[in-house]
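By way of example, we now present a protein record of this kind:
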Amino acid sequence: MALFKRKPKRPPPSERPSLAVLLEQLPDFDEVALAKALAAIEPLRLYPKLKFDFKPDGDGVMHGHAEFDSHIVRIVGFDVPIPEAVVSKTIDTSAWQGEVREDMKSHGAHLLLFHEGGGKDVPERMIALYKLAAVLGGDKLRGVVHESGWTSVPRGIVGDFLKADELVMFREGLPPVIFFGFLPFRDEGETWYATKGCHIFGVPDLVVRGEGEANSEVMNLFHNIFLYMVRHKLIEAGHTMQFGHELFLKFEALPESHEHYDYLKGADVTLLLKRITKEEINRS
């Protein structure tokens, strides 16, 4: 992959990470046992401290607080499912099918995890939330919803965040669906692909028109561009990129006049990828 043009200044992320943890029901949390389980995943600089309580007016809303390593996470729990609008946005639009999808939709309660501070970077903050989700969910876990990424993650994958060797893969790969959303939009024979939630990492969301490729090919393209931006250089409108030996791309701001603008636009900057020839690559 080769990128040409100046290196732009990276803006701070416009939103802190958050997750919704889908549960069969709200459990009776054992703060000591939860702290021990969280500490057992991998070495921490700060031993976990967790605290939970219910509002005195008895409305059933649970409030909690967790500190571990350098992370500070606020927790709010509800003894009801997530709103149907969120289910439609994150579970119904996902690629998960059959029992996996129904397992997530069958939840009866949920926790909201808000990353309030700490963590060396956004990927580590997201990993901290997933680790906490896996520990808090325990045997009541049904999955996780990442609403800002328009995506959902089944409990089996969330449970992998309890395994130190799996954390290596998550840190190296930052895989789609878990860290950001990837969605195909189809209309009258056209297919458009878009990412969602990349703004949390301080990078643009991406949009491209499909030209007969498999979904997995476009996801791989987006994933590699996402990793490049997170780890190396930010891409802006006007930049061009060579991907492999034959694919050449130009990035433009998604125009408001685009007929699918409302569906494709991310929460912040969104770039439209256009295929160009080798001769059109910027070399300044």
Q: What stands out?
A: The mean pLDDT is 92.
